[in-house]
Amino acid sequence: METTAPEKSSSPSPRNQNFVSSAPDSADTHIENEDVKHPDVEDEIKEAPVEHEESSSAAAGSDAGEKASDLDSVSDEIDQFLSLLSSMEDKSTPPDIPDYVEVFCKLVEMQIFTYDSGDSSARFGCNPDDDSRFLESVNRISKLTNVITKFCSANSYYAVSLNQTSSVMQCAMNFLENEFHALLEDSNSKRLKKEDSNVRALKTKQPSFSSNSYSNSTSNRESSNGLPESESDHPEEDSSPHSPEVVARLNKIATAMISGGFEAECCHVYSMIRHHAVREAMSKMGFEKMSLDDVHKMNWDHLEQEINRWCSIVKETSKLVFTTERNLIEAVFSGYPSIYQTLFKDLARSVIFKFLNFAEGVSMTKQALEKLFKVLDMFEVLRDLNLKINKASYSDDEWENELKSEICTPASRLGELAYCIFCDLEGSIKSDTGKTPVPFGGHHPMIRWIINYLRVLSDYKDSMEELFEQHQKSKERHDETAESDDHENDSKPPHAINNNNKNHRNNQNQKNKKMSGFRAQWMVIMHCVDQVAETKSKLYKDPSLRYIFLMNNGRYMLQKIKESSEMQELVGDAWMKKWSSDLRTFHKNYQRETWGRLLQCLNQEGLQVNGKVYKPALKERFKNFNAMFDEIHKTQGQWVVTDSQLQSELRVSISAVIIPAYRSFLARFSQYLDPGRQTEKYIKLQPEDIENAVEELFEGSGHLSMARKRT
Amino acid sequence: MPATDYNLGRSILGIRRDQVHTMEGSQGVSSLELELETFQRQVTDRFHDLGSVGPEELLSLSWIRKLLDCFLCCQDEFRAILFNHKNLITKSPVDRLIAEFFERSVKALDVCNAVRDGIEQIRQWQKILDIVLCALDTHRSLGEGQFRRAKKALIDLAIAMLDEKDSNTTVAQRNRSFGRNNVGRDHRSLGHFRSLSWSVSRSWSAARQLQAIGNNLTAPRGSEVVATSGLAVPIYTMGSILLFVMWALVAAIPCQDRGLQTHFSIPRQFSWSQPILSLHERIGEESRKRERKNACGLLKEIHQIEKCARHMNELADSVQFPLTEDKEGEVRQRVEELALVCEALKGGLDPLERQVREVFHRIVRSRTEGLDSLGRANHHE
């Protein structure tokens, strides 16, 4: 091998010399003249040394095949020359530069020209064989350039040759860079189309939880979050917009550029385009650049929408970055871990930083009850982002720590805000001084609001518990530093006090372990609700209605709590039991208040004088009974018991008390009334009538049903 | 010179001294007074120190970092004063002044974000410069191809820097034609990926933000000083420092709609007025220099980038191959210059960015603390 190369180079043909002198200086003009020069090169190849003639003629059938074999044979020569040069210890007396170096340069230029010719079937990527041959050539030419530079100072021919090889190399790298750029960009537009449809699904408006109107809001976690769990919606595999072929091509180009020393350009183009792509995707999702000033001035309705949008964008984008983009980077730069790690970290860092500003802004807004869930949503989104960073770690502590501390700052501020809002709830409940009773004993809007609020909050139980813990810790830390500060100023030895304090605190901690800080506060709120029900019930003058109100609202709370296992867990069995027994007491009291009095009419005492039934008293009893029952039927028909189970429980218990008593009263005393007119006048109700009437109680529409009956 | 300033500074507090003494018990007040005087003196010292640099160092990366250090120190001392006198800050009219100050400081946060984007921008330029350095590695012989590579990177740099100067939509148009004329059909401009300046909306303006920070920032009258037990003075001082530091950042670092017209009128009796006003004057002069008039930032290193790029372009246009020894020497020299700038950027941008973040966080923290104590007081009332 090494012996043949110098032999050939020692006999340059005159035609070759000609070719060199006529070669234009710049690569650009080379390209433009290529079609003119082409035949020359062909000639050149055909007159190449004898041993290649065979392969040339063998491939003469097709133009492409011919070119390929030309390139193959020249490439072999170049490889031999390369190995000769690199084996030379003495750099001062290099061999002459063989002609095929120039031929090789021409062939590479020609290939670039063909790729660029505009003929779509000849583009890069259409013919894998040509492409890999081309990439090999690029590799060869960069090696060639590198080797030649080492001999430039010794031999001026080498300097001339360096101009040529380096220009062709620059030209080739430029071409690859453009190709790389175009491939990455095309993929962008494809992905954007796809994302378009995803985004539309995200933009559903969520019901809002507003505190100022204790409205009928029954928002639950799904709707307040506004997002279907998108992780499961789009399996991660098919989110990549790049076909495996494109990725493979990108990888080949990147490898060629990096091994040719063009790492900087390659990474620059890559990160420019991918950063841009991610941002474009974000703005398609509706991400808006917002200054803190903007956030500061925004009203809550608007801000709430922005928060919903922000949460979904952060989730989607972090999935995009941590899965799709990361896979792409690792595939394109496989074999270069340090490069792909740097690229990925830069991308993640820059994208994440864009998110944080809005979170900072929201964390600085004033606290208000209606903000709690949105603030918690944001807190959780940031927490999940932190987890993603944990998982993505390339064991680079600096990057990880920087990102985490950047995320932590707004996250902990949001957490503190949520904490304060929730602790504020107690005060807002207590400050309510409404004096209007809810008509007909129905659900009190404030109770309903609080319970629904708590119902939503129970879904954030874990986060809230974490926040209470954090708050407690930072408070303890604060206390401790304050304590030690005190001691520094104290002249007495502080140990005794210190230990006492610590012991005391430990004891307390132990006690608190049974009930988390969050749960403790939660129970405070439950107690408040109880108080609200109690206070509001006192607004009713009619004790029966008061009990109906208490039952209605108590049952409502109980039902809501039973619907959610989180709530049940938070409230605890003891409380539930106590509440159920309270409800039973209310029921009993109601029975006594309303039906106990009615039963008095059916009391047998006082009806008999000297062992005989005293008719006027009997008549009076019937009259009273009828009137009273009518009155109850009228008023309590208007009362509302929305819970159907409670309604039927009440009716059953009423019927069970009143009907047998009435039946037996009738059986015993109806005979004393004269049949006909008198019976008709005093016995207006049959037991069945009473049963029917009881069925009409608590419908909230007493008036209507009565009216209907009369017509 | 500084000594007389301190006396002037003392004299404003001095006016107050007698009056306050008659109003409140003397013990607490005199310690407050001492704190306030110390604060004024420290602020003055710090800004004198900042002003003591030569024209070469002014507005350099290291100087900007010093400026931010100075801000952080002043902010800390200011915070300590507020913290030590919680009882005073909840009283009218101090509470109003404090609330105004916090409003002002929130506006500075957006400047911090914009500046951070600007730093990112410079970092991109530095990456392009790295390509030039990589192309013209002087340890090897250089051929035409290497110069073309450098030239291409320089065009990318020119586009990236031009892009920043006027962030209008017309720029994209200009880029395209710029690219076409200079680099031939193959060159795809990366300039239209305005990768950064992304934290704020398109309509955001640094100039307007500075104006908002400086809104209603006036020196307290004597009666106000008395009514606030002197606290009006540090609040005004900190407000002025905030405005000046933000203004200087905007002057130095590329950001959206820079405008340096901010006017500072600080009464002479404040001892720190002289060093701040003189810095304001010097930076203003710098911005009016012909070669810097259209600069995207007055940062010294940006100027150096521009200078190096220009030299390098001229050089790349003039080289003939093979390189003469003279030329080779010149190339080596230019590359060394460039390497120095890159080195300074590499070493300085990251810490600067962290510092800007720190400024951001400190402002937020002190605002939260301040509002907390104001809010708590309101609850108790």
UniProtKB/TrEMBL annotation, chain A:
It comes from the Eukaryota. Signal peptide: none annotated. The keyword Protein transport applies. Residues 208-229, 498-510 have a biased composition (Low complexity). Residues 27-55, 231-240, 467-481 have a biased composition (Basic and acidic residues). Residues 1-72, 193-244, 467-513 are annotated as: Disordered. One of its GO terms (molecular function) is phosphatidylinositol-4,5-bisphosphate binding. This is Exocyst subunit Exo70 family protein. The lineage of its organism: Eukaryota, Viridiplantae, Streptophyta, Embryophyta, Tracheophyta.
TrEMBL record, chain B:
The chain crosses the membrane at residues 231-253. Keywords: Membrane, Transmembrane, Transmembrane helix. The keyword Transmembrane helix applies. It is found in: Membrane. It holds the Pfam family ROH1-like. Its main location: membrane. InterPro entries: ROH1-like (IPR008511). GO terms for cellular component: membrane. It is a single-pass membrane protein. It comes from the Eukaryota. Belongs to the ROH1 family. This is Protein ROH1-like.
